Amino acid sequence: MIAVPDDFPSVFDGSEAHERAKALGEVRVFTERGADDEAELARRIGGAKVAVNIRAHAHFSGKVIAACPGLELISIWGVGTDNIDLAAAARRGVTVCNTPGANAYAVAEHAIALMLAVARKIPQIDREMRGGAWPREMLMQLCGKTLGVFGTGNIGARVAHLGRGLGMDVLTWSARNGTPADKDGILRRADVVSLHVRLTPESQGFIGQRELELMQPGAILVNTGRGALVERDALLAALASGRIAGAGLDVFHEEPLKAGDPLLSCANAVLSPHNAGQTPEVRRDGLLRAIENVENFLAGRSGNVVKG
Q1: Exactly one of 59, 196, 226, 283 is catalytic; which is it?
Q2: pLDDT tens-digit readout, 1-58
Q3: Same domain, 185 and 76
Q4: For a disulfide at 55, which of 6, 8, 226, 253, Cβ 3.0-4.6 Å?
Q5: Which of 26, 202, 255, 281 is catalytic?
Q6: Is the pLDDT assigned to residue 238 strictly greater than 70?
Q7: DSSP state of 207
């Protein structure tokens, strides 16, 4: 049996991928919120051999994995694995697959859009014009500026490519071969910093007070990776003090943001609701690739297996 325990908000139910999954056997899809509770997530998976993970709010912890002894595969729609206890999965012989690259073009475009929105102050100017003003303040040109891209996977590489297309000087850093000195050097030089590193215990707080103080006054921070890559209080302080010019954020420590969250009152922050990859193309292709991983696994073929 295949369980889809976390299809909320629903994207899988009734999709082409859903129909394709039905050819593999019984498919149970849960479209109600509740998979963020460990006991409920385990109940929904039940005795399924395969779980298709749609949303990051479903945490496949060691406790959940242990409660599902029949589970052999977790196929993730997306790239991030921070909601999966990979060590626990490995101990119990559960294979974990993801769909790298499926959302790369969409997320990279969104990262560039956030850069431009902050640099050109588009949301602020739009609000002022709707209030009857005709603002004439100075804006930031990206051509000729330096872009620091942290993380050189599918998304980061695409952001670097698009940045060069805008005429930016691009500096890149990879967790595999980048050093702390390289990281600090890029932070000091970059006019725009864009985060695309994988969230791990080591990368949590990748940008904190020290890193924000290294950045140039007037620099822009863009995060389309994971909220926890940035220390929240340090970012709020940097935005409030004007230590950096602004931030473009698609990801947050807690999602959705609650009413009254301090970020909502930061005029120099441009916010989007973790929807950088929400395009018809990404949804269709990513869901189909998640099911392809299931097909390959059941047929004994290799797929996009995540190495813990």
Answers
A1: 226
A2: 999 999 999 999 999 999 999 999 999 999 999 999 999 999 999 999 999 999 999 9
A3: no
A4: 6
A5: 255
A6: yes
A7: B
Residue 307 lies in a domain: no
Q: How confident is the model at residue 307 (pLDDT cuts 50, 70, 90)?
A: confident
**Residue 260 DSSP label:** T
Q: Which whole-number Å values give the CA distances from 222 to 8, 28, 29, 174, 204, in the listed order?
A: 26, 38, 34, 17, 16
Q: Taking 70 as the threshold, does the pLDDT of residue 94 lie above it?
A: yes
Comparing CA positions, the residue from 257, 258, 209, 201 lying closest to residue 228 is: 201
Does 203 lie in the same domain as 91? no
According to DSSP, residue 47 is labeled T
Q: Cα dist. 80→43, 99, 118, 123 in Å?
A: 23, 9, 26, 29
Question: Are residues 70 and 49 in contact, defined by beta-carbon separation less than 8 angstroms?
Answer: yes
Task: Give yes or no: residues 59 and 140 share one domain.
Answer: no
Is 253 noted as a catalytic residue in this protein? no
Catalytic residue among 158, 274, 283, 289: 274
Any bridge partners for residue 270, and if so which?
A: 248
Sign of CA dihedral 84, 90, 95, 97: positive
Structure tokens at 212: 């924000």
The CATH number given to whatever domain includes residue 153 is 3.40.50.720
Q: Which residue has the tokens 């993730």?
A: 76
Assess whether 89 and 111 both reside in one domain.
Answer: no
Residues in the chain: 308
Domain encompassing residue 53: 2-102+279-298
255 is catalytic: yes
CA-CA-CA-CA torsion sign (273, 160, 280, 289)? negative
- Give the helix/strand (H/E) hosting 2: strand 2-4
173/157 Cα distance (integer angstroms): 10
